[in-house]
Design brief:
The protein folds into 3 domains: 93 residues, MurE/MurF, N-terminal domain (Udp-n-acetylmuramoylalanyl-d-glutamate--2,6- Diaminopimelate Ligase, Chain: A, domain 1, 3-Layer(aba) Sandwich), CATH 3.40.1390; 213 residues, UDP N-Acetylglucosamine Acyltransferase, domain 1; 30 residues. The protein is flat and about 110 Å long. The protein has 4 helices and 40 strands.
């Protein structure tokens, strides 16, 4: 699909310097720009490329003043990076604008589909499922009975949504995600571990994005809840009855054990582990590989290490640990001096 500089300028409320009729049909990095491509410049480190790029149109900040002639058409906006991000979203929507129901899918007679949906090949949709408007379900997705999916949500290939779960509007669920698998709960018995039935569900609110191959377990009773605006990276595991607060972001490899409550606006780095039945305060920041074994109740604090320590305490501890061999050597030397002193004192007393 082609866009002119004039159309892009109107879309972004920008100002054109160059040819308003310049046309683009693809996106590129500024250093790799070629005729027919659209790029942007926001980082000063890449300014050199504005004078050599072959991109037909480049989005720049209004404050940008060329020091040399440029051959590309400029679209000047208030924030070039944000404007380009908006165009990327528009481009992505156009690229993935599919609709229709594949004849190779299976949809239970009692399921209800909204308007302008896309159902790909080999999708299976169970009984009494309700799917909203503009939803896209890609190939090999399995949706169990009584599931509700809100408007504009996308489920990519191979997603598995077990029965009775609720998914909100404008969600993105990437390939391989499993929603509603059983929580890991067993009771030890004389003949082995006895499985506790998991009869709750998973509730995912609006505007949530779930990365590839995440697993979100259903609750034993009640619901595992992912609140509005949460973003999960790939390979995150959320256990049964966990609640993740609004707009919290969780990076890859993190695992949260059962019944833990994570506050809103938290930033959780990769490979963090949290034990069960604890509370994480709003605005908490956890560095990579942090291990959280007890509740963190003070909002807005940052933690590192295992067990988790406030950043300042962790850094002091890290210094001590780094110097530990020297400290041990000094102690051993002092002990040796003390033994020699005591030996000398003992000898003097014997002589007396």
């Amino acid at each position: 699909m082609n866009f002119t500089a004039n159309q892009i300028s109107e879309m972004l409320n920008g100002v054109i310097e160059g040819d308003p009729a310049a046309t683009v049909h693809k996106l590129s990095k500024i250093e790799e720009g070629e005729p027919g491509s659209l790029s942007f410049l926001s980082n000063p480190l890449y300014t050199q490329y504005i004078y050599t790029t072959d991109a037909s149109i480049v989005i720049v900040n209004k404050s940008f003043v060329p020091e040399h002639p440029v051959k590309t058409t400029l679209v000047k906006v208030d924030n070039a990076e944000m404007a380009f991000a908006r165009l990327l979203e528009v481009y992505n929507q156009i690229k993935s604008n599919k609709s229709g129901v594949s004849s190779l899918s299976f949809i239970a007679p009692s399921a209800k589909l909204g308007e302008n949906v896309y159902i790909g090949e080999f999708v299976v949709i169970g009984e009494d499922v309700m799917i909203g408007n503009n939803v896209k379900i890609y190939s090999h997705v399995s949706i169990g009975d009584n599931v509700i999916i809100g408007d504009n949500t996308v489920a990519y290939a191979g997603v598995r949504i077990y029965s009775d779960n609720r998914i909100g509007k404008n969600c993105i669920i990437h390939a391989g995600v499993v929603i509603g698998s059983d929580g890991f709960r067993f009771v030890p018995g004389k003949d082995g571990n006895i499985k506790v039935a998991q009869i709750g569900n998973v509730v995912i609110e609006d505007d949530v994005e779930i990365g590839a191959n995440c697993a979100i377990d259903r609750a034993t009773l009640g619901s595992t809840i992912i609140r509005r605006g949460v973003k999960l990276d790939n390979l995150v595991h959320i256990a049964h009855n966990v609640e993740v607060g609004e707009n919290t972001c969780i990076a890859a490899g993190t695992g949260i054990a059962g019944s833990t409550k994570v506050g809103k606006n938290c930033l959780i780095s990769g490979h963090v582990s949290m034990t069960g039945h604890i509370t994480i305060a709003d605005g908490t920041i956890l560095g990579g590989a942090t291990g959280v074994s007890k509740s963190l109740t003070k909002p807005g604090q940052s933690y590192l290490g295992a067990p988790a320590l406030e950043v300042s305490r962790f850094r002091k501890s890290a210094v001590y640990f780094r110097n530990f061999p020297d400290i041990v050597e000094r102690l051993e030397r002092l002990e040796k001096i003390e033994k020699e002193r005591k030996a000398e004192d003992g000898g003097q007393k014997s002589e007396g």
